[in-house]
């Protein structure tokens, strides 16, 4: 079992899929993989690291959708950056309002459809 609280790999022009082995970082709190050339599906293993507080995957070429139970998968998430992924589709799950620590949510420049869950308005800034 690997123990690490931060993975910071910004602007390194890393390519390929995000490695599924990232799930072995069980104490990971911050996953910062923005501005690379990651492609392929938005791997669900990221959403199985319940201690994550910050996810920054913006400016990659990932695809897929957000899991409907996102709020229960990432209860401690504070900052969630998935902008400019280009192929993120589907809707913003209503369960995201269960992320009571969430202060930043950036899903801009994607192909999301539907309404913004009104329950997001009930989250408070910390």
From TrEMBL:
Keyword set, alphabetical order: Glycoprotein, Leucine-rich repeat, Repeat, Signal
Pfam family of the protein (one): LRR_1
Residues annotated as signal peptide: 1-15
Family annotation (InterPro entries): Leu-rich_rpt, LRR_dom_sf, Plant_LRR-RLKs
Identification of the protein by name: Uncharacterized protein
Lineage, top ranks: Eukaryota, Viridiplantae, Streptophyta, Embryophyta, Tracheophyta
């Amino acid at each position: 079992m690997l123990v690490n609280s931060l993975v910071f790999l910004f602007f390194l022009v890393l390519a390929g899929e995000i490695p599924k082995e990232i799930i072995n970082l069980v104490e990971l709190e911050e996953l910062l993989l923005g501005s690379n050339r990651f492609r392929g599906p938005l791997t669900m293993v990221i959403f199985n690291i319940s201690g994550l507080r910050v996810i920054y995957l913006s400016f990659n070429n990932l695809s897929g959708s957000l899991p409907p139970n996102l709020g229960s998968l990432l209860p401690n998430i504070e900052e969630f950056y998935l902008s400019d992924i280009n192929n993120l589709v589907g809707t913003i799950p209503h369960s995201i309002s269960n992320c009571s620590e969430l202060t930043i949510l950036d899903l801009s420049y994607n192909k999301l459809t539907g309404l913004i869950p009104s329950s997001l308005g009930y989250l408070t800034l910390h």
